[in-house]
């Protein structure tokens, strides 16, 4: 899976999506309800780095597979919505299968 740009994008999009959910669902409540601002600082930094890696992986996949702008824009927008990376991973799994069949 790590051999192809789509496979790498699948992995990083899932990890980034989980980090987003951790930030919203755990770190922010810890900060605002229990006074632990370090949770948002730590998880936010990790999520930020993962988001940058996601953007690089998306650009790499877009150039390698020669997608038109529609797919990368939709994938990027989905990364901004909680739980949407699960849909993206499902779609990318199909694309990854098509890519393997094409080789």
Structural write-up:
- The chain is mainly α.
- The chain has 4 helices and no strands.
- The chain is elongated.
Comma- or semicolon-separated keywords:
103 residues; mainly alpha; 4 helices
Quick description:
The protein is mainly alpha-helical and 103 residues long. Helices cover 84% and strands 0% of the residues. The chain has one domain (5-102).
Topology of this protein?
Elements: H1 5-34, H2 37-65, H3 70-78, H4 84-102
Helix/strand/pairing class, anyone? Answer: mainly alpha
How many alpha or pi helices?
A: 4
Global morphology: elongated
The residue-averaged pLDDT reads 90
Give helix % range: over 70%
């Amino acid at each position: 899976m790590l051999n192809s740009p789509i496979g790498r994008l699948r992995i990083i999009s899932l990890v980034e999506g989980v980090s987003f959910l951790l930030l919203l669902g755990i770190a922010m409540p810890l900060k605002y309800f229990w006074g632990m601002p370090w949770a948002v600082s730590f998880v936010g930094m990790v999520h930020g780095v993962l988001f940058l890696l996601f953007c690089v992986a998306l650009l790499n996949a877009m150039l390698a597979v020669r997608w038109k702008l529609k797919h990368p824009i939709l994938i990027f927008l989905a990364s901004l919505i909680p739980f949407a990376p699960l849909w993206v991973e499902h779609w990318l799994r199909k694309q990854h299968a098509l890519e393997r069949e094409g080789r």
